[in-house]
Predict the structure.
Amino acid sequence: AGISHLYKFEKSNINSFFIPMHDVYEKFLGKLFGSYFPEFKVEEQMEKPAWKTQDEDGEEGTLGIRTDVLLRDENGELKHLIDAKYKEKISVTDRYEIGFYIHEYVQTDGFAILPHDKRAEHDETLSDYTITSEVQKIKIIIKHVDIDKLLDAIYRKGLSSHIVRYLIHGL
């Protein structure tokens, strides 16, 4: 509800809606890998128990983690752990989250895939980079994808999938 006239205090109703774009982005990446990377079996939104818990009554349970996209080879071996981040840059919390996923899946690296931000200075393509933990012996590869270019490549008729794969290079 809102006030339509400040001095008369008349109320008006405002109908709003919210689209959880982070969920849309996660599903977009899952479908993208499923369609254009046939050498991998794509697992989206996989839950795995990660913490043992005990409540005040002594009852034990577990808390889980939920990864965004896992890419496995034909033998079922995990090849790539991917976390979709619908934001401009990853935070310290994001780094710890991805690091925990890497640890739990016994990997040495993982990917954070962020959308290219058109608001970047001079509309330049953002550079990919890597964060390394020497202590944990893991690395997080930060990749930026230009969604507009990806969608353009996907919806052009007769365009081969190597263009889509090129736009997500390094995987």
About this structure: DSSP finds four helices and eight strands in the chain. The CA atoms of residues 116 and 123 lie 10 Å apart.
